Amino acid sequence: MRNLVKKIPIFIFIALHFSFLLAVIIKNWENLISISILSVIVAFLSVFYFKRFNPDKSSIKKIDIFLILFAVIGAIATYALKIELKMSAVLAAGIVGFTSSLLPFINRNSDVLRELPVAIYCGAFAGMTAPFIANGYSFIISAGLISGLILIFSKDTLHGHGGKLGTIAFGGVSAVSLILFLFS
Hints:
- The chain is mainly α and 184 residues long.
- The protein has helices at residues 2-6, 8-28, 32-53, 62-84, 89-101, 111-127, 137-153, 164-182.
- The chain has one domain (2-182).
């Protein structure tokens, strides 16, 4: 069972990047039946893998709602600094990340405040999305929401692997882009 648990980070990494590849394939591929079949297979395998090898993650806890909410707040704050104040994406994310890192000092015994900086910084990566991809705050809110959901489902995975939060945000932005492309 431990070998299977060790494979979860690899699966998450592949699934997030697959959403980007699927968006590219859909944009350049005209056979909708093949795309539909591929999407159903990937969705089935993802759900099967999640339920089979990660059964204790099936319920969302109260703290998880806060993490999702603060991932959205981090995305909005970064995007607002970038768009409204004309900051670079890196500087905006840095300011949001630095500010969020101060939250645990409000109450060092609070488990919620200890986990919020990670969620906010994950959202900050989603908020770095270029304006020609993110056409407004609704896109950023959606990307932050999906990034927050991915974050809570992968909370206990990818430890010691660099780029976890960026990969999660990449997956959230890619998923929103894919959804918008499919419904446009």
